[in-house]
Amino acid sequence: MEGSYKTQEDDRILLRPPSAVGTQTNFNDPQRAAELELGIDNPLAVETETSLQNGDAHEQNGGASNGKTRTMSNGNGHAAEPDSLPPKPNEVDDDDDNPECGWFRWRPNCLQCCNNIVGYTLFLSIFVIAQGMTVNGLVYVVITTLERRFGFTSVRSGFISSSYDFTVMVIIIFVTYFGEKAHKPIWLGIGAGIFGIGSIIFTLPHFLTGDYVYQNSDFELCDSNRTGDDLCTTTEVQDENLVNYYAVFILAQVFHGVGASPLYTLGVTYIDENVSSAASGLYIGIFKAMAILGPAIGYIMGGIFLGLYTDIQHADDLDITPEDPTWVGAWWLGFIVVAAISFSLVIPFVGFGKTLPGGKKMFAQREVETQKGTEFEAKTGWQAVLQFPKALWMLVKNLPFMFNNLSTACETFILVAVGVFGPKYMESQFNMTAGEAAIIAGIIVTPSSFIGALFGGWVVKHYNLKYRGMMRFTLVVLIISFGLQFLFLISCANVDFAGVTVNYGRNPADITPEEGSNITAICNDDCKCTNNFQPLCGEDAVMYYSPCHAGCTVKSTNEDSQSVYSECDCIPPTNMTAGILGTGDGGRCEQGCSKQLTFIILTFLLITVAAMIAVPQLTATLRCVSQSQRTFALGVQSVIYRCLGSVPAPIIFGSLIDRTCLIWEDECDGSRNCWMYDNVELSRYTLIMLQSAKGLSIIFIILALVTYRPATENPTESAAPSTISKDVMPPEIPRVEDIEDEKV
């Protein structure tokens, strides 16, 4: 028959016997492990196939055909095309270990420089900065401004903050469980878009309401002809309308929670899947540093924007300053910035492949550190749904994982408590405005958290720490930070406040602070004052609740555009020749406390040390669970530290702080706001709460360390652990010792 035909020689597979191999086969060799993981059973197959395709003829003595490398001749001395062709350059194949970056079939070469762990970490870091700026920065900074602008009570504003954590708690389990086998970068891109929508929704109340109308100046002075029944009617109608926007803020936080749910779970797991164990700690450290950097930027940016008037178009027509308690800053501007950043991340994320180039090779070299008895094989599709209870139980019974989670919950409790109430603590202790406290907090947190998280990641990478090493490092850091937290014993004396900490100077018998706070005295009894807090510093260096409570009847403005009040019946004059009535300046009195710098330096050191455990704890979580459950484990961890840390922290810590309140402002609707705290008691309660949480965290880390039993532990530790598991090693490959025996 005419045409192509084959001979016996064409059927031969040219393989050299094992004895001809120049180097011995080493099953602990990372390259060999990668070849086995990729399905290359015979290390000589690649060389054989290459030789045949080049038309070379080699002779084999006693060789046998190998089904995986069998190559047919086309009769022209060249190898015929194999049955399974490799994918074309512009086709996407998730099973390939060299996926290209791009969208659909467009994958230009200029984008491939970003198709690596550095490029991915860059975009993930930008996302986590935007998330931290918003949820843990801007929202905390603008809470008190929202209360003033929209008439929210403290309970309502607190729930605005907590609604984010509630949303994440509900959705995170499903995102992590079903996202384990999904295309993680695409989920991140969708999440970034949803997060941006949430930020836009958060700004809508500003654009849907009219201009802000601050307190009428007619009510700030003493006026005996004013009727008390009219005091609550000036803003009552406006507040009832504005309070309806409460649901809009809740909806925005729900979108924030849904959008950010893949960030700390799928985003982190994608890093760990595509780099070596040693490098994973470094890149996760960068991610954690950016996560802590985000809130710091949010504090600084929020503080700056709060210095701008909320209705920017009317900024030139104001007669109040940011120091005025009725001031409302541009709380909404920061969320516009975050929305723009979030939307810009959608396209880059969806351009990444399901894995990064070389990711599967790295994964094949990974040493298994799973807790003994918790190995698990994840399913897909409907089987994954049926397998959910078993998957959850495998994590719950993993004691090192659970104890590490409890420690993380304690650390989260501290982080959230200080994040929410830290600026308020500094406002009270060092007599700062809300904007000043926010900016200083951001300046402290930014470099310290960045340095601490990066150093923790560097330690994990440099010393190639395994699970036990990371837990020991975490334990040492926790003990050091426990000692540093005693800095909260630093406190400043309370400001002299008429009717609260000192008697009214003009009528000393009017009030005794030990008997309780009472800002009403004989000198202001007929003034018909409102409950709006508008502090005034009298010439006697005593602070008064408002010009009205100081008995002032005249207001003027000095050359610095600062309000000056005179004819104040409750303020004793320092110069009797100038008149029998005192004067005062609008704003708080200077406290004169010299401990502020010491507190800032020690706080910087504390945050630096505390941030060092971020990477070891997170990496340890990924190491002690089954490799197929790492993303799901992060989801379960997120639920635990939110249930025990993020959600209860503001409630518990807030209730303790309220116990130190010296003066309350009673609103017309029955709600109350505290305007002054006892600094000594505030310091004491803060220290007790933080040290209790830190002490529990230390105990849980010790338990996580002593209960750890790795599945591949070698009691003698005389040999280096193999980089591949037994189920990967093919039994048909002969051992080197057997080959040497045959040669003999």
Automatic annotation (TrEMBL):
InterPro entries: Kazal_dom, Kazal_dom_sf, MFS_dom, MFS_trans_sf, OATP. Residues 734-744 have a biased composition (Basic and acidic residues). The keyword Lipid biosynthesis does not apply. The chain crosses the membrane at residues 117-143, 163-179, 186-208, 245-270, 282-309, 329-352, 401-422, 437-460, 472-490, 597-618, 639-657, 685-708. PANTHER family: ORGANIC ANION TRANSPORTER, SOLUTE CARRIER ORGANIC ANION TRANSPORTER FAMILY MEMBER 4A1. This is Solute carrier organic anion transporter family member. Residues 118-709 form the Major facilitator superfamily (MFS) profile domain. It comes from the Eukaryota.
